[in-house]
């Protein structure tokens, strides 16, 4: 099966600019996640979708971050305006329904804010 | 709230020897799952092994096994016969079953960098 697709692979922007990331999950996976991974740390969940509804966005900085999952498939994550501390790898993952279902991760987007 | 603690920032092991990576967790949930992921320097997250809270036997997957001690709330990863390709960051993670088909988020620990020496 095809894996989780993410683009772009790398992005460099200046602070206060905006940026968007795209994710296409594995076909049939109902749950989609966006994680932020700062260098040297474990991934932190930003938002979790079940189909096209939000399950958990408690750690999403909603004043600057937004995400949507149209038609329960692809998803975009946007940052506007970006800050220096947003420099990180943004990982998209998907999973089927089930406690024991592991998350399948994409290769991530490495964002550098200068 | 759930919390995962990995107390070993870095570990070293000789090729062909076994190594244990520690993981302790804290949760008030009764039903939960524990996962281990490997993240090589290339950045992808690779799923290794899963243990359910009600599983009576420790999980095994090839050279990976999970030493699950529920009373101690620990879920250590054991890698047998280490290979050079095992050098990577390793993350312990957990998620809880909240009721029906509602699942909590997958929470990760800080990770342990494993270096395998030839």
Overview of the structural elements:
The complex is a heterodimer of chains A (114) and B (118). With 114 residues, chain A is mainly β. In chain A, strands 2, 4, 5, 6, 9, 10 and 11 form a 7-stranded mixed beta sheet that branches. Chain A has a 4-stranded antiparallel beta sheet with strand order 1-3-8-7, with no helix packed on it. The relative contact order of chain A is 0.33. Chain B has 118 residues and is mainly β. Helix content of chain B is 0%, strand content 55%. Chain B starts with a strand and ends with a strand.
Quick tags:
heterodimer, A: 114 residues, mainly beta, 7-stranded mixed beta sheet, 0% helix, B: 118 residues, 4-stranded antiparallel beta sheet, 55% strand
Q: Largest chain-chain contact?
A: A-B, 23 and 26 residues
Specify the structural class of chain B: mainly beta
Query: Distance between termini of chain A?
Result: 37 Å
The end-to-end distance of chain B, rounded to whole angstroms, is 41 Å
> Which parts of chain B are unreliable, with pLDDT below 50 for 5 consecutive residues or more?
none
Largest sheet of chain B: 7 strands, mixed
What's the Cα radius of gyration of chain A?
A: 13 Å
Could you spell the SSE succession of chain B in H and E letters?
Answer: EEEEEEEEEEEEE
Structural class of chain A: mainly beta
Averaged pLDDT of chain B, please? 93
- The number of E-state strands of chain B comes to 13
Which ranges of chain A are low-confidence, i.e. pLDDT below 50, for 5 or more consecutive residues? none
Number of helices of chain A: 0
The largest sheet of chain A, given as strand count, sense and whether it forms a barrel, is: 7 strands, mixed
């Amino acid at each position: 099966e095809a894996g989780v697709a993410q683009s772009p692979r790398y992005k460099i922007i200046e602070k206060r600019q905006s940026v968007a990331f795209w994710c296409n999950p594995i076909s049939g996976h109902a749950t989609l996640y966006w994680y932020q991974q700062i260098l040297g740390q474990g991934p932190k969940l930003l938002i979790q979708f079940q189909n096209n509804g939000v399950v958990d966005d408690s750690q999403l900085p909603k004043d600057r971050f937004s995400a949507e999952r149209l038609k329960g498939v692809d998803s975009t994550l946007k940052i506007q305006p970006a800050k220096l501390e947003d420099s990180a790898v943004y990982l998209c993952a998907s999973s089927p329904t089930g406690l024991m279902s592991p998350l399948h991760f994409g290769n991530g987007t490495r964002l550098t804010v200068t | 709230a759930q919390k995962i603690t990995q107390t070993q920032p870095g570990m070293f092991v000789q090729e062909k020897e076994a190594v244990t990576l520690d993981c302790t967790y804290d949760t008030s949930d009764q039903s939960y799952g524990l996962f281990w992921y490997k993240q090589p320097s290339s950045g992808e997250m690779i799923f290794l092994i899963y243990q359910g809270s009600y599983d009576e036997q420790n999980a095994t997957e090839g050279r990976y096994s999970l030493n699950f001690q529920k009373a101690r709330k620990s879920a250590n990863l054991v890698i047998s016969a280490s290979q050079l390709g095992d050098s990577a960051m390793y993350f312990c993670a957990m998620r809880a079953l909240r009721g029906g088909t509602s699942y909590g988020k997958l929470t990760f620990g800080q990770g342990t960098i494993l270096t395998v020496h030839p």
